[in-house]
Amino acid sequence: MRRRTTALTATAVVGSLALLTGCGAADMTKQASPFANAQGAKSVTLSVQSWVGAQSNVAVAQYLLEHKLGYRVDTVQVDEVPAWDALSQGRVDAILEDWGHPDQEKRYVEDKKTIARAGDLGVTGHIGWFVPTYLAKQHPDITDWKNLNKYASLFRTAESGGKGQLMDGSPSYVTNDKALVNNLKLDYQVVFAGSEAAQITQMRQFAKEKKPFLTYWYSPQWLFKKVPMTEVKLPPYKEGCDADAAKIACAYPHTPLQKYLNADFAKSGGRAAAFLKKFTWTTEDQNEVSLMIADQKLSPEDAAKKWVDSHPGVWRKWLS
Amino acid sequence: MATLSVSASRTAAPRVLKSRAVGKLLLLALLTAVLLPFLSRWGNGSWPHELTVSLSSPLTSASNWVIDNRDSHPLFLYFFGYISNAVVLSVRAVYLTLLAAGWTGVTVFGALVAWRVAGVRLAAGTAVAFLACGALGMWVPTMQTLALMVAAVLASVIVGALLGLAAGLSDRLDRALRPVLDTMQVLPAFAYLLPVVLVFGIGVPAAVLATVVYAAPPMARLTALGLRGADPEVLEAVESLGATRRQRLLSARIPLARGELLLGLNQTIMMALSMAVIASVIGAGGLGDRVYQALASVDVGQALAAGIPIVLLAIVLDRVTAAAGDDRTASTAPTAHPRTIGWAYVLAVTVAVALAGRLLHGLNWPAGWTLDIAAPVNRAVDWMTAHLYSGVPVVGGTADWAGHFTTWILDPVRSGLQWLPWWSVLLVVAALAWLIGTWATALTAVLAMAAIGVLGVWDPALDTLSQVLAAVAVTLVLGFATGIAAARSDRVERALRPVLDVFQTMPQFVYLIPVVALFGVGRAPAVAAAVVYALPAVVRITAQGLRQVDPAALESARSLGATGRQQLWQVQLPLARRSLLLAVNQGVVLVLAVVIIGGLVGGGALGYNVAFGLAQGDLATGLVAGAAIVCLGLMLDRVTQPTGRRAKKGA
Q: Three-state SS for B13?
């Protein structure tokens, strides 16, 4: 019975759609999620990337949108590059933390003009190679890439095939590590953990036993509070030294993280769009929320509530 | 979710088979001797570079073309756009209906439908399941998943039934469709998310369409089977009454196929539900998305809280549709299955309860009525990993096992496979497939394997293959042992049933973090997750196969004084050979599906490439790896699926 009623509704819906649009074009770049605006509430859809910092931005933005501005917020978890595509199509309204995608920026912001810049997040991101601080204390010279080969055997695992293991994370992250290992002639094997969750789990296991490990990692990140890590010095970053992917032999840059909005939403998104444009906070603020979510296992909503209750000075400005 | 492929019975005397097998092998050896000088011209290592085709530039330009033309080209505006709109609107319609009914309305409606179809016990179970979803704080995501499911299942059933109707009525179409359906069924779902995403973008339309591709085949297959299996005497009788072709179809063949149609619906629902979770990777929303988001913050407890509603939905939908399929007897003997409640009452009561609920306490699940299971679960996981990971006296920790498993089993198998000359791999595939099937199966298997080489991913594919082989070996050892235990003791089987249900329906993503916590990052956790996922199907099929062994044969063995062990080895296992082979086949297909997801925990190889393609929107890497996985699945299926030429009559 349910099947039949839904069949009827479905045909009715499709039929009325055909009537409404006549035989006009059905522009699929202008469709929101079917779960948006349910029950007549104004709604905003935010994209969440898989790392916890991104969850924190979204959790706080969501909390304020819902409790102070009266919006309904949907969140969708998407990787970075697909998120750009989704943003241009209007499937999501905002990306709150972008680590730099020049190709996508050129395509969508400059050429197609379907995505609008929304300013700095206020947090500066940096990618690098890290060893746990307990290891750096034992071997102080380990923090220079030139000495890494000497210690390769320390980092050997079942997966690294006789070489040292350099652990990389999710396939969605910006990484030059394979080229770096190759071009700096390091006796290391890049092992991809495949997801940030797997990488964090593994790092915590290593840290619990004070085992040596070398990993691709990035700041700001809440895990530094739980597993103190020291960055390994790579050849210094110079503007343009990462231009040719195959020849890279320099460190990663420091990136002021950016926000982006769907262009239509930026124009007609009302108070929500204005709020998201003004949203900026510090690395410490973000880490505070992240730590509550990832370590104390608070739900993102509870973590956001706690932060919002204790930092009224910061977010008041975003709402004005 | 396990789907048993329908295969007809095979009756062949073993001796004839043996001599045929020797003949086949001799012929193959002869063929190799003739071809070898020619083949080894391309070297004796991995797949020769001259025989590969690079697809990366055409795929990249195709992907750019789609992105540039998506908002202007008529193909998108007038075709894909309408499909996408229709999906969005129908999912939205169902979702709004569910929200409007409120939690009371939905629960009561679900329970009443279950009562009407399957009796009081299932009605109570259904109500409890819905309430549990609410109590876990997952009401809204559950409704989103349900809305997605209704739309996807409806579309799958329509597509599947149409294909099945065509295949059931025309022999030629049946022959043409069979390989297509076979292929669709062995595809690991993860592999074809990428092309759908490219055309439809992330989100609900892409998720629903990917689900339809995945879930329609069982419906098509069972529809065709039902139509073909209709009792010829009844059909003759109808024909003699002067019925037209269409009348014959509507009044006799379709009603007679009711059991198969409902079984098809059941299978379609189960597959759609498993896909609804995988589709969270492309932004489908709902419960799958909650599982996925919880994993990002390494929160197993929260992932489980979202996984349990999926399991409950799966179990309820499975039992209710299975019960609906069973009551064919009821229509002939109405007293056997008393009708308790009419459809009109179901609707009336639902509306009344929904209105009452709305007046009393609103539509949303009451905020205070939630149960927090995340914290205790996380504590349990922490304890487990703290105490089992390493340093356990005598046996060593799980991390040590994983290390040994990787160095002693995975590494040798992988280097062995990669060391073999490429043509000898093809030869082994050919020999295995031909021994178990026909020359046509062998040809398909060899071509599938060769396609992997041509795509230029020979080495990663063999890496994936080595993981599959290791996981299948472990699965079979554990699965056969458990299956034998379950077949020999009713108590064991009863105790196992809920465990198997849970393992089989729990979204694979939930396992990923615990396996990393136990086994570290690498191929070992991927193998472990695959074993957990594939085990239930193997156990079930083994137990069922052993139980169906002719009791007379067992009785006579017993009267000859055979011990329990002798009965098992000399009577039960040989007689259950067909079931055991099916168990192997299902084990292989399911393991492959998870080893791919194992790319997310360091499994590397093809699984990582697919994940990379999805994450970076890199069609060239992702699609080639996806195609290679499909070929690998096809090859493994052919090599393990016993299909006799003579056995094709029935199905």
A: coil
- Ranges of beta strands (E only) in A145-264 are 164-168, 188-192, 214-219, 229-232, 254-262
User: Residue B508 phi/psi, 5° resolution?
Assistant: -55, -30
- A10 vs B contacts (CB less than 8 Å): 86, 90, 93, 151, 154
B565/B557 Cα distance (integer angstroms) = 11
In a 3-state reduction of DSSP, which class is residue B115? Answer: helix
| B299 part of contact set with chain A, CB < 8 Å | yes
Residue A305 has pLDDT above 90, yes or no: yes
- Which residues on chain B are in Cβ contact (under 8 Å) with A72? none
Task: Report CA-CA distances (Å) from B465 to B133, B532, B602.
Answer: 38, 18, 15
Is residue A295 within 8 A of residue A222, CB to CB? The reply is yes
Q: Which of B386, B189, B360 lies closest to B275 in space, CA to CA? A: B189
Q: Is B94 in Cβ contact with A9 (below 8 Å)?
A: yes
Interface pTM (ipTM) of the complex?
0.80
User: Using DSSP, how many helices (H) and how many strands (E) does chain B show?
Assistant: 32, 0
- Distance of alpha carbon B13 from alpha carbon B269, whole angstroms: 39
Asked if the C-beta of A197 comes within 8 angstroms of chain B's C-beta atoms, the answer is: yes
Comparing alpha-carbon positions, the chain B residue that sits nearest to A293 is B297
Q: Cβ neighbours of residue B242 under 8 Å, at least 6 residues apart?
A: none
Interface test with B, best of A20, A30, A33 (most B CBs within 10 A): A33
| Cβ-defined contacts of A235-244 (< 8 Å, 24+) | A235/A145, A235/A184, A242/A176
- The answer, for B94 touching chain A at a CB cutoff of 8 Å, is yes
Taking only the tens place, the pLDDT of each residue in B93-136 is 898 888 888 888 888 888 888 888 878 888 898 999 998 888 88
Side chain identity at residue A221, one-letter code: Q
HSE, CB side, 13 Å, CA atoms: give it for residue A19.
6
Give me the residue label for tokens 């809920």. B498
pLDDT at A41: 59
SS3 annotation, A67-115: HCCCCEEEEEECCHHHHHHHHHHCCCCEEEEECCCHHHHHHHHHHHCCE
* Residue A114 to residue B29: CA distance in whole angstroms: 62
Calculate Rg over the CA atoms of chain A: 23
Q: Which residues of chain B neighbour A55 with C-beta distances below 8 Å?
A: 293, 296-297
**Interfacial B residues in 417-476 facing A (CB < 8 Å):** none
Q: B380 and chain A: CB distance < 8 Å anywhere?
A: no
Measured between CB atoms, which of B92, B289, B522 is closest to A77?
B289
By C-alpha distance, the chain A residue nearest B606 is A194
| Cα Rg, chain B, nearest whole Å | 26
Task: Provide the shortest C-alpha distance from residue B141 to chain A (in Å).
Answer: 10
Question: Can you tell me the distance from the alpha carbon of A201 to that of A191, in angstroms, rounded to the nearest whole number?
Answer: 15
How would residue B362 be classed by pLDDT, with cut points 50, 70 and 90?
Answer: low
Give residue B77's identity as a one-letter amino acid code: L
pLDDT of residue B330: 45
